[in-house]
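User: Fold this; tokens only.

Assistant: Input:
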Amino acid sequence: MAFGQLTAQFYPIGEDPSLRGMSSYNGKEVILFEASPTVRFSFANTMVDPGRNENYRKAYYLATRPQFRMYTDDSSPVKTPSYRVFMGTQQMFRMPDWERSEREARFLSFSLESGHYSNGQSGCAFSKQFQDETDECDNVYTTINPDTNLSDLLNRETGNFSTNLTELILDYRTYRLTEEEVPKKMHAFQLGYVLYHNRFLFLADFGGFSDNDIEIYGRHRWLFAYELMDFWRWKQRKDFRFSFKQTVEIIATPHEYVNPFRFESMAAVYPIPQTPAFGFMISYIYGHDNYNYRFIDSGHQVSVGVTWSQFPPFPLTGAIGKIRR
């Protein structure tokens, strides 16, 4: 049965937009909620309708992946937001089918994005008294040693965070399909690498990191993820979709104070047939934060909210104009 016209541009790899309430890592800040309105603007996108070649799908796009947190502070509730803007492409290849009793499809994909990541602030990251890249700010960094508590020192109101980066993610996924070749179960595995670098798109000399900051950031990050998607029928009602995703991020060689690991377990359900991309989610996080310079914070965090899937199930062959369930 069909549920509405398919008008959005979909992408198999990437973070889904979300709005969620979150617990806080420490007593220094109390989070009310976080909004991550991820948006991609395609120049070309054949993920849904690949044309004649149903074994190859592609997209070229401009992506914005901001994060905004509202805190309980009275003076400046929205502090140091994260702005991320990228040029990107995703390529998806259908692999030869295996001979099995149930219909299956396997895809190998990759995502390559490069752009800028910053919080739009101009203050010294570890002092409220000075501006970034001044002699006074540089002198503050000389006092930082392996035993320094960076969370206590961080300028959480105006501290600058800025870098250019490039991210590569490889994705292997298997689908179990209905007779109409609509996915009814999925396993996906991802391996990613992120490089922080100075030149924007490796060309333009702006927006990069400072020498002092990169010693704390670490230039390299590794990403790992597993996702399960399936359908569940409850009390003879219509099937509804659910997913579980486990992600791991590892920062290579950051400052000794920083926890290099981040583990997030997230579950989501999509119970509304008329809007199958809309869902409710809950997550548990352990490890470093992922909000600009607050990656120096670490601990346990729980979040609950809503999300919007950027790659809901739809037919993988034939003329595609509708989402099916």
